[in-house]
Amino acid sequence: MENNGKIKGKPVNKNAPKKKNDGSLSQKTIRKGLTIAVSIFAFLLIVSIVLIFVVSKKIESLTGADAQIKLSAQGGFNCEYSEAQKLYPYGDGVIKVTSERIAYLNLSGNEIFSQTVSYKNPQCVTFGDHVAVFDRDGYNFTVLDKNGFWYSKPTKNPVKSVQMSESGFIAVISGNSESFGEVTLFDRQGNQLAEWASYNSGFPVCCAFNADSSLIAVSTINTSGAVIVPYIRVFSIEKTDKGYDVDDNAVYTTDDSVIFASLCYIGNKLCCFTSNSLYEVKDNSLTQINFDFSAISYVKKVNNNLFITYSDGISQLSKLAVINSNDNVIYNSNIGTNIICVAQTTGYYAISVDRRVFIYNTSGVIVNDLAVDEDIIRMNFISGNKLCVVSTSGVHTVT
Predict the structure, then answer these.
(1) The model's pTM
(2) Closest C-alpha among 388, 354, 390 to residue 369
(3) Mean pLDDT over all residues of the chain?
């Protein structure tokens, strides 16, 4: 209807806010969707890059291996991880050690013999044909071989460590409230031959027998002064008509403030190791050998050669050096990052590192390089030069 030429209706408010249309709402939804999509894509891209890196590293770690072995397919038996931690390769099978029992099992997992014990912190160490199980900081130790138990002995002081000779002598390092500590020597039958208490030389750290068990060397560390003073005490063991006589043979020290954490004899040459160096007894004195080991992890004697694993520092590649009896380095090479365990026999040396197992002969030549599909807990050579491996899934043998 017209009225004086004007259209009737409500007056227009030019300052009123404009209403957003439906197209603006759709754009907001699209932008939100795109943001979520880009975030998901970025996340998946990062995950993909990480997976590619991990897989490439795994493939790289397997590159060059002579063989890739599925451990679960090898001879032996399967068990839970918690059970595998109690097993130690030895003889023709494994030694199973718990707080209540020590048992010898064959490679099928069947028990050959066992003995009841009561140990709070049982530790198992093998020495060639012999085994010693002791209660660390407890008061007892047991010696056995694959034919049965030899003996169990109580101790009057808490046991710290045990060392055995090739002929079956046992040296027990224990604490002593009246001295720095003591070393007690036993023969194959468990008869006590001697007891040495350290009053002036310091805390006993470790010990080692020579090949024919005629000498035993003991490393001690004296911390009572302003600086650390290391001593090496050597005792002679002589068989007589009445038994054995154990006497002082020699004492060695050095001006260097070091700790000799391990000892071994190469023939009758005494080798003493700190955390980063090698000393030898030469001309009746301790002499440092000019080798650069920043951080020593394992020292093993194979025949008359020393196999030493070390690294140049934290997070550095691990290396293996082989040194012959003339102190010449006949092998020295990178071997990997994470060393799990090592094993040796008279003719071979094996090392588990980064899911690889390298096996060397006495000259430091790699005779086998194996990639494995499981984490290894420990390993050892058993009868017939088989390598017995305890992994997270059980016990397996590698010929």
Answers:
(1) 0.80
(2) 354
(3) 87
